Structures are given as structure tokens and as C-alpha cells.
């Protein structure tokens, strides 16, 4: 559509989804497509609402020249009604989102795993929260591959 909207969702919205959101926003900006996309990220849970991303996520993005001012929020009913795409990180996200979307009249969002776009076929983007810097870097690389492929498909 003329204004494809995309949201990137993970459980707590402080590690994976802010990385994916920032990466996608940078790709959109590099391609001069800001007028076509509204990008956001949200959590399935309300654990971290209002919090900035994990410092390791911010540090990983900074290494790649990307800044973000995102604060965690929880996904809303309106998200399902206004976004064209809701991309999530793992199967439990997918289950929760499908369950929530079933309670929303006129859900228009296509809900799928971000990993379905990975040319390297890594379907699941694992939560790096209990890992180290290398795990955050892996998430970054996966998000970059997936977001590039997603943008190419829908651009």
C-alpha cells in the first residue's frame, strides 16, 4: 500500500524489537522512503513499559552508527487495526499476537515472524537478554538481513 506501516514486536520491547525497529528505520531512511513507512516496536507484555532499551542493545546499535530514542510500550488494539505488518521474534510472540488479534474486530495486520524473511533461514531471533555482547550482535545481524529482505519485498 502507499503507506505501508510496520510494527516490530517482542516480549519486553527492550532488546530485540528496538534493535529491529532502529535497523528498519535506518534502512528506510537510507532508501529515502520515510514518507512510505511508519515504524514502531511494542511489547506483548507490560513488564518494561516506559523503559529505554537495554544498554547492550543501545551499545550494539551505536557500534553500527544507529541511534534510537525508543521507549518500551505495550501493543494496543489499535496497532492491529492500523499497521499492515506486525513482525515478531519467536513462536511465543506469534502465539500471543495471534491470540490478541482474534479479540480485535477488523484486524488488518499481517502477523508473522521477522525471521521468515531471513535469506539464511534463521527463523527464530533468540532473546539475547541473558546473553552477552556477541548475542546482541547476532540479533543485529539477523534483524539487518530480515529487514533488508522485508523492505525489498514490500518497497
From TrEMBL:
Residue spans crossing the bilayer: none
Keywords: Cytoplasm, Hydrolase, Protein phosphatase
GO terms for cellular component: cytoplasm
Substrates-to-products reaction catalysed: O-phospho-L-tyrosyl-[protein] + H2O = L-tyrosyl-[protein] + phosphate; a phosphate monoester + H2O = an alcohol + phosphate
Catalytic residues identified in the record: 16, 127
SMART domains membership: LMWPc (SM00226)
Ranges for domain Phosphotyrosine protein phosphatase I: 9-153
The protein's Enzyme Commission number: 3.1.3.2, 3.1.3.48
Compartment annotation: Cytoplasm
Predominant location: cytoplasm
A GO term, aspect molecular function: non-membrane spanning protein tyrosine phosphatase activity
Record PANTHER family: LOW MOLECULAR WEIGHT PHOSPHOTYROSINE PROTEIN PHOSPHATASE (PTHR11717:SF35), LOW MOLECULAR WEIGHT PROTEIN TYROSINE PHOSPHATASE (PTHR11717)
Record's protein name: Low molecular weight phosphotyrosine protein phosphatase
Organism annotation: Cinclus mexicanus (American dipper)
Gene: Acp1
Amino acid at each position: 500500500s502507499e503507506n505501508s506501516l510496520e510494527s516490530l514486536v517482542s516480549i519486553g520491547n527492550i532488546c530485540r524489537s528496538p534493535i529491529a525497529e532502529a535497523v528498519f528505520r535506518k534502512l528506510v531512511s537510507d532508501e529515502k522512503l520515510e514518507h512510505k513507512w511508519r515504524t514502531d516496536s511494542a511489547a506483548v507484555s507490560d513488564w518494561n513499559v516506559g523503559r529505554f532499551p537495554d544498554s547492550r542493545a543501545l551499545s550494539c546499535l551505536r557500534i553500527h552508527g544507529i541511534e534510537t530514542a525508543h521507549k518500551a510500550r505495550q501493543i494496543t488494539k489499535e496497532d492491529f487495526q492500523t499497521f499492515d505488518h506486525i513482525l515478531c521474534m519467536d513462536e511465543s510472540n506469534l502465539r500471543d499476537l495471534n491470540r490478541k488479534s482474534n479479540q480485535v474486530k477488523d484486524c488488518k495486520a499481517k502477523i508473522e515472524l521477522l525471521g521468515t524473511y531471513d535469506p539464511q533461514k534463521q527463523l527464530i531471533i533468540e532473546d539475547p537478554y541473558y546473553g552477552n555482547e556477541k548475542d546482541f550482535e547476532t540479533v543485529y545481524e539477523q534483524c539487518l538481513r530480515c529487514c533488508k529482505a522485508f523492505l525489498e519485498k514490500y518497497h
